[in-house]
Amino acid sequence: MSTAKTWLMGIDIGASSLKTMIVAADGRVGGTAGVDIETRSAHPGWSEQDPADWWQALCATVPRALAEAGIAADDIAAVAFSAGAHTPVLEDAQGKVIRPAILWSDGRSGAESKELQEKYGAEILAIGCNRPAPTWTQSQLLWLARHEPEALARTKRLYVAKDWLRSRLTGTWETDPTEAVGTLLFDGAKNVWSERLCAMIDLDMRKLPPIVTPTTVVGTVLPAAARASGLAPGTPVVCGSSDTSVEAYGAGAIAVGQGTVKLATAAAVSIIGREPRVHQTLINYPFAVPGHWYTITATNSCASAHRWLRDRFFLAPGGNGAEAFATMDRLAAATAPGADGLLFHPYLQGERAPHWDPLLRADFVGMTFRHDRGHFVRALYEGIAFSLRDVLEQLRAQHLDMGEARIIGGGSRSATWRQIVADALGISILVPRVTDASFGAALIAGVGVGVFPDEITAARQCVSVIARHEPDPARRPLYEQMYGIYHDAAKQLIDINHRLAAVGRA
After folding, report:
1. What is the maximal distance between C-alpha atoms in the chain?
2. Closest CA to 296 of 392, 389, 416
C-alpha cells in the first residue's frame, strides 16, 4: 500500500450516474466506482434529480474506488468535483434543500426563455456570452418565480450541482467562473455576478455564491463527512468545474484550435479559444486552462436516445443492459452505411443547436418492410452524427473549425459509432485513453494541491491517445447525401412537430 499522497480523486455527477475515480500522478487510473442516479420527469419535458441521491452515491462509490485502487483514504492528496453545468440547488436558511434540482435538459422554461429573448436578448448575449434558453438557470429561476414563488422566497443560498455536493464535505459555499457563466447571471467580461442580468428576473444577488478558480482549495473534509463518505478527515477539497470543461481538458484538448466531440447524454462539439465567440447559435464558457474559453454547440439527446432505444426495444424485463447495448452495437456494425435509406432525428427532448426549439420531436424517416433492428440502431448512430454535423456547421459559420477532435463520453466506447462520426463530420477522431469527466476533475485536484505545477503540465503528463479514426473516402459521398436529406427533412417537419407538441400537451 502506497503511503505517498500522490493519489487524486475526481467525482462527477453525470446525467444518469455518479462516478468516483482515483488517479495516480502519472495518469494511471487506480480505481473507479459508479452508481446510477434517477432522473424524474413529473411532467412532459421536465428533468429533475434529488440532490440527496448524489450524496448517497458519493458515500457508496468512494469506499469502492479506494478498495479497487488498493489504497487507504489517507493516501488521497485531494479531491475535486464536476457535474452537468449550472443545475441549480436551492437551500433555505437551515441548510435544507427546498425542491429537486432542475437539470440542464429540462424544457419547462421555454416560454420564459422566449420572453427573455424577446425583451432582452441582445443585452443578455452581450453580458452573459450566451442566448436565453431553457437550459440556463436564469430561465429556470424565472419559471420558479412564476410557478413556485414560495421556493424562491425561502431560498437563502443557490448552489449548482457539483458545488452543493462538494459542500457536503467542506461546509463551504462557492462556485467557479464556468458554472457562473452557465447560470446566465454572470458578466463574462468582468468576471462578476451581473446586477443587470439578475434584475431581469428580480433575483436577490445575495443568494449567489462567491467565485473562485477551479483549482482553488476551498476547504477540507470535515469529520462527520469523513465518517459518512469514507474519505479521510482533513483531505483537501478543490473546487472543480463543469463536466464539459474538465472532460475536454482531461481528454487533452488544451490548446487554441483543439476540440472535442462528445457522445454522452447530450452530444456536443467544442473548440478551445482565447476568448468567447459570442453569437446566437453558440455557447461559451471559461475553460479549465486559465486564459482560455471553449465555444460549444450541443444537442439535447445522444446517449439518452441510445438508452431509450435499448430500453424500449432491446432490453427484456430483467435483462442485462450492458449485453443489450453490445447486441445493438454488433447489429449497427453489420448494417451498411446509410441504414438502407432510414433516417433518425434525435429530438426526443426538443433541441438546442442549431434549432433552439423545445417543441421539436424525434422521428425515424423512410421506414419500409425491409428495415430490421440493425437498421434502426445504425440510423440512430448516424442521426446523432448528423446532429453533430449540424452543430459543427454553426461553428464553421463563425470561422471556427478543426481538422481533428478528441472523442469523449460513453458513446465513444463504440468503434462503429466513432467511425460514423469521423465519416459524417469529415474530420479525424482521436480516442483518449480515459474519457470520463472524473479523470479531468482528478487532474484539477492535483493542480490545486501542487502535485502538478499547472494545468498544461498535468494534461501532458497524464493524457494519451490510444486510437485514431480517419474519414473513409468511400463513404463520404453517401454521408454528404444523407446529411443533406437529414437537414432538409428537419426543416420541413418543424410545423408538423409544433402541431404534434400541441396535441401532446393537450
Report:
1. 64
2. 392
Question: Burial letters for 200-211: b for 16+ Cβ neighbours within 10 Å, e otherwise?
Answer: bbebeeebbbeb
Q: Give the domain CATH number at 440.
A: 3.30.420.40
Question: Torsion over CA of 297, 299, 302 and 303, rounded to 10 degrees?
Answer: 70
Beta bridge partners of 217: 238
Convert the pLDDT of each residue in 257-293 to its tens digit.
999 999 988 899 999 999 999 998 899 999 999 999 9
pLDDT in tens, 164-188: 999 999 999 999 999 999 999 999 9
Q: Is residue 277 part of a domain?
A: no
Alpha-carbon distances of 211 from 85, 155, 166, rounded to whole Å: 15, 19, 15
Task: Tell me the pairing of strands 363-365 and 343-345.
Answer: antiparallel
Asked whether residue 425 falls in the same domain as residue 440, the answer is no
Cα–Cα dist 216/392, whole Å? 33
Quickly count: other Cβ atoms within 10 Å of residue 493's Cβ.
17
Q: What is the domain extent for residue 197?
A: 7-251+435-467
Q: Is the dihedral of CA 316, 322, 323, 325 positive or negative?
A: positive
